[in-house]
User: Which sequence fits this backbone?
């Protein structure tokens, strides 16, 4: 696969957005960045598999959920709870960004050593997928606020989606739809949890969950 095809260029943008997400404390900017990242990923089925019926459904579903619906719900949540920044992460933004850089470099080195079929040689799907999974995991373990951790889940799922694109023709449509539906339900549940935490403790810090003991 040509290193300079449109899909690879889009995946390079995904990597840049990963770095921004790891280094930013502004929740609104992070949510909008994840929305843009989701919109970019929704184009991948079309570039990889053409304008087939399956690819169009995957692209449309991914754009509606990743690029529009879920970011809208998260933006609405931060407006309701009146928070704008992640002020006290478990690990600082610079160390997190350095870890993300190392994980991204490791993903490219590891994928370069894999015995890939010829069709996937030169493709960025596998290294970018691994790097995006690592970014989502870092967001989950280094952030305190429930909204930021919800973003971590979304980024992690974006990495799974990138891998899924390599198998889109063999993977049944219902499996893809089920993954996206599970993610949407998870965000709704996270919204309920965030509302309860904010109402009871006037904070979105998940460290306060320890005080929920009887």
Assistant:
């Amino acid at each position: 696969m040509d290193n300079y095809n449109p899909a690879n260029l889009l995946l390079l943008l995904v990597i840049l957005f990963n770095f921004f997400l790891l280094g930013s404390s502004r929740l609104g900017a992070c949510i909008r960045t994840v929305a843009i990242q989701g919109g970019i990923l929704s184009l991948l089925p079309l570039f990889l598999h053409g304008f087939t019926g399956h690819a169009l459904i995957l692209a449309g579903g991914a754009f509606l959920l990743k690029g529009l619906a879920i970011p809208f719900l998260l933006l609405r949540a931060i407006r309701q709870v009146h928070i704008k920044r992640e002020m006290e992460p478990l690990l600082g933004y610079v160390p997190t960004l350095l870890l993300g850089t190392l994980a991204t470099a490791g993903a490219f080195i590891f994928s370069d050593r894999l015995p890939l079929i010829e069709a996937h040689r030169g493709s960025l799907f596998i290294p970018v997928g691994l790097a995006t999974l690592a970014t989502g995991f870092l967001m989950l373990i280094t952030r305190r606020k429930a909204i930021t951790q919800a973003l971590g889940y979304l980024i992690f799922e974006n990495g799974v989606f990138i891998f899924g694109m390599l198998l889109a023709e063999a993977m049944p449509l219902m499996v893809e739809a089920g993954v996206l539906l599970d993610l949407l339900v998870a965000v709704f549940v996270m919204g309920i949890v965030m509302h309860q935490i904010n109402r009871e403790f006037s904070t979105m810090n998940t460290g306060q969950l320890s005080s929920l003991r009887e």
